[in-house]
Amino acid sequence: MTATLMTGTDLAAEMVAKAADRARALQERTGVQPCLATVLVGDDPASATYVRMKQNRSKKAGIGSRSVVLPAETTTEELVAELTKLSEDPAVHGILLQHPVPAQIDERAAFEAIDPAKDVDGVTTRSFGAMAFGEPGFRSATPGGIMRLLEAYDVPIAGAHAVVIGRSPILGKPVGMLLLASNATVTYTHSRTTDLPAIVRTADIVVAAVGRANFVQGDWLKPGAVVVDAGYNEGNVGDVDFAAAAEVASLITPVPGGVGPMTIALLLEQAVDAAEAQTV
Question: Does the reported pTM lie above 0.85?
Answer without folding.
Answer: yes
